[in-house]
Amino acid sequence: MDMFSARNVSPMLLTETKLPFDDANFIFELKLDGIRAIMYLSPDSVAVTNKRLQDVTKRYPELDKVKSAVGARVVLDGELVAMKGGKPDFFALRKRSAMTNALKTEIAAARSPVEFAAYDILYLDGEDLTGLAIERRKELLHACVRETAGLSVVGHVRESGVRLFELVKKEGLEGIVAKRLGSVYRPGRRSRDWIKIKAMQEEDLDIVGFVEDPSGEVKDLIYGTFSDGAATPQGKVYLGVGASDREAVKKHLKRYGQAPAPSVKRYPDAVWLKQGLSGTVRFMHKTESGALRQPVFKSMSNGE
Q1: What is the CATH number of the domain that holds 39?
Q2: 125 and 68 belong to one structural domain
Q3: Are 149 and 38 part of one and the same domain?
Q4: What is the maximum alpha-carbon separation in the chain?
Q5: What is the pLDDT of residues 126-148, one digit of tens each?
Q6: Do 61 and 86 belong to one domain?
């Protein structure tokens, strides 16, 4: 059974570095804030599997129309994205992906359709392309796939990773991916041939409370806003919170005492703090509710 019929391709995985770079031995493309997927596409059929090899085709009925984009059987690696205001909206996509009711899914597909953004081609009409160099696969991708409503082909630049990263950061996008020229596709394997660089934002935020672990130690910090001394929690952050940050929270609580619970009924087991403590948090972007995507605590901005 060939790759197209087996539908068992695990996407190649990325390593990560913190800083963008220029290198004539790499191409650079956008890192889209979506869900990684493999598409099995022909003029007669379309199927989509996720990283866990689950068939998720029925969740996105709007993708059935992209069959017109190809004239042969192909297997594409790419990203499922939900666009809002010209940019990927991960939370809108996650809401769609969680739907199980067929009628609701059809309605949502018409109102806010999900798209597939392809950045690699792994199979073409009976031929396994994974052993070809990335630049040749890119040529075949652009030659064999016509962009249409619901299906786009991700472009790339050579060498100039820093400039692309700065543009991505300015636009509030997720980041970039560097791919080494000459590299082959390694299904399910992580390789330094593919490197992601995320564009993170930073902001000083009020620490309005915290959640304790079973031993009574500070675990998650709750960030939010204060208005006339009353807190409105917006989200939690755990990654990056260190011993000195936990100590600052304890000192603040000891000095000023515990605040009453806010009117917004979230985090029922939280300990609430009075105004005066803030910290710097790195994150991808904010949601409409003020929550942060992929927050990482950097440091206390003030504290006792």
Answers
A1: 3.30.470.30
A2: yes
A3: yes
A4: 71
A5: 999 999 999 999 999 999 999 99
A6: yes
- Are 63 and 114 in contact by the 8 Å Cβ rule? The answer is yes
Number of compact structural domains in the chain: 3
Q: Are 148 and 242 found together in one domain?
A: no
Structure confidence at residue 219 (pLDDT): 93
pTM: 0.77
Instruction: Report residue 304's pLDDT band, with 50, 70 and 90 as the boundaries.
Output: very low
- CA torsion sign, 204 to 209 to 214 to 215? positive
Same domain flag for 42 and 135: yes
pLDDT tens-digit map of 3-49: 999 999 999 999 999 899 999 999 999 999 899 999 999 999 999 99
Residue 5 lies in a domain: no
Domain that holds residue 242: 201-300
